[in-house]
Amino acid sequence: MTLAKGDPVLSVEGLEVDIPTTGGILHAVRNISFEVRQGETLCLVGESGCGKSLTSLALMGLLPRQAKRKTRRFMFQGLDMSTASQRQINTLRGNKMAMIFQEPMTALNPAYTIGDQLTEHYIVHRKATQTQARARAVELLEKVGIASAASRLGQYPHQLSGGLRQRVMIAMALMCGPELLIADEPSTALDVTIQAQILRLLADLQAELGIAMILITHDLGIVARIADRVAIMYAGEIVEEGEAVDIFKQPHHPYTRGLMSCIPVPGKTEPGGRLGTIPGTVPSMVGPQHGCAFRDRCSYVQPQCASTIPIHSNASGQHWRCIHEQLETLT
User: Fold this and answer.
1) Which pLDDT score, from 0 to 100, does residue 325 have?
2) From the CB of residue 284, how many other CB atoms can be counted at a distance below 10 Å?
3) Contact between 313 and 322 (Cβ < 8 Å)
4) What mean pLDDT, rounded, does the chain reach?
5) Hey, which residues does 18 pair with through a beta bridge?
6) Cα(83)–Cα(236) distance, integer angstroms
7) What distance in Å separates the CA atoms of residue 178 and residue 273, rounded to the nearest whole number?
8) What pLDDT does residue 272 have?
9) Helix (H) or strand (E) holding 254
10) Which of 86, 140, 176, 318 has the smallest number of CB atoms closer than 10 Å to its CB?
11) DSSP 163-228
12) What are the strands, taking DSSP E only, across 245-292?
């Protein structure tokens, strides 16, 4: 199915991921909904442990065996993924839906060459010959900025630097020309200079190929540079979502405001000055959940925060989950 820019590639409603533990059910992802459109970059943002990576694994069908996924609606290019057969899912995964994992050294198999790992799924999905697959691999390695690409095919992951391994992972994800690319903190394990190169590469490739991208990160600096839309996650829920420019201009949820206060602002934050912090810790997500999960850390908490939380919207398309429809301007 061919989509035009602006059409939804992925639409998810009511996604939940539950994991049985000895203490009860861990509600790792709780009733989240979002969509990603052709040519759009959606950033999932939040602290470690908020459910970002499990969300991506749920979308790809790569959850741990004990984890259970539920959705009210899960559509990818017009196909209902919640009722799709395993064969249909296998046909899409790695082909039309691809993922760049957080740590390339553990994602790449140390026992196989780069060439073998790049060409394997291209041969399976495209019914290509080995020669065709290797030519495609060289083309993609050159596109992601790897010199002497043909000679790299015979190397093993340990023979490459961290930045080159991540570029190989990006090339691998693009081998079959996916419609949706999920990048799970692709620059976390890299030094700052290489991080910038990888993020610039992803942005350039996304713009050139017109694919939809979900970027998972906890770095708001990355979000400001690359995101079209932002979904802020906390304790397994999306607490605020909207256009990136609107989120940074006027965040509405107290958690989003807390994250923003932790960022140094040029011209406002004095050198050596104190940055904002969010007091407290993320609550346990084991057992029944009710009310706002952020209420024990929130300076705007009210007794009704322990009950059902409404979702507010504004004219620009921002949505936030809070009892407060308006808070005083963030300074």
Assistant:
1) 85
2) 13
3) no
4) 89
5) 27, 68
6) 24
7) 45
8) 72
9) helix 254-261
10) 86
11) HHHHHHHHHHHHTT--SEEEEESTTTTS-HHHHHHHHHHHHHHHHHHT-EEEEEES-HHHHHHH-S
12) none
| CATH code, residues 8-96+179-265+276-321 | 3.40.50.300
* Mean pLDDT (whole number) for 218-245: 92
Q: Helices 130-143 and 114-126: crossing angle, nearest 10°? A: 120
- Residue 245, pLDDT above cutoff 50: yes
Q: What is the pLDDT of residue 246?
A: 94
Domain edges within the chain:
8-96+179-265+276-321, 106-175
- The type of residue at 320 is W
**In the chain, pLDDT over 70 holds for what percent of residues?**
95
User: pLDDT grade, residue 330 (50/70/90)?
Assistant: very low
> Of residues 6 and 231, which shows the higher confidence score?
231
Contact 214, 182 (CB under 8 A): yes
Q: Is the per-residue pLDDT at 55 higher than 50?
A: yes
3-state DSSP assignment of residue 140: helix
Q: How far is CA 298 from CA 24, 120, 241, 266, 302, in A?
A: 26, 49, 19, 26, 9
Give dist(CA 181, CA 142) in Å, integer: 19
